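Protocol step 4 of 6: structure prediction from sequence.
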Amino acid sequence: MARRSVRTKRTNPWLVFLAPMCLGVILLAGWVLATTPGGIPKYLLPSPMAVAQELWDGLFVYRDLWGYMWVTLSEALTGALVGFLIAVPLAVVIYRSRIASAATLPFLGATQAIPAIALAPLLALWVGYGMSGKVVLCALMVFFPILVSSVVGFRHIDPEVLSAAQVDGAGSLATLFNIEIPLALPNILSGVRNGFTLSVTGAVVGEMVIGARDLGLGSLLTVQVSAFNIARTFSIIIILVLIATTLYTIVSIIERRWSDLTKPLSEGDSR
């Protein structure tokens, strides 16, 4: 009896592009209507044109925002890389060792409940008020999503695949790098996608609480809020959203490409 091929439901590319565009237009129209004369006061909600003017001036006229962006992005990416390099090896240890799994997993949920803003002052005391404290804070925020997603990915590997590798005589390291990591990589990248986005939040919180000689967007955001420059504040928030969205999109593209490369070939053979 011939096997029926399983067809995955693919999202229309035009829908992926047009749906967020339509929602963005609707939100922008609502923003414009809310800031018309007689609506919300400008000191509470600036108009889109005022925010766009602040963005244009900061990026292309005075160009002062680029330096702040570079500081924040450097902190976020460095912390994200540190968190990734610690989380994935630890996930392998938890996956392969029952003792390590039993000892560490009960604490993961509790540690994720600790807010970043509560850790920032402690990190300033322990690590210092420079860039290192903010990098550690970013690493902590990235660490847990990657660790949890990686452990889940390893534990969902089909045991029959591992048994076949052992029958073929594959060693422990060969099985890890050639079978286990590639099969768990979609889950690992899912954690990276969420973690790298959170690293931007960690950098901003660190700049607000820890501070440093090199000022980033979080430091600038604090200054503008204190000065009641709401339009400038909104422009900084939009830049932070764009940075986080860009990181999220880059990892999503890598994740999608990897999923396409590792798609089972048995679908074509079973027809």
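Step 5 (inspection) to follow. Residues 1-8, 265-271 have pLDDT under 50 and may be disordered.
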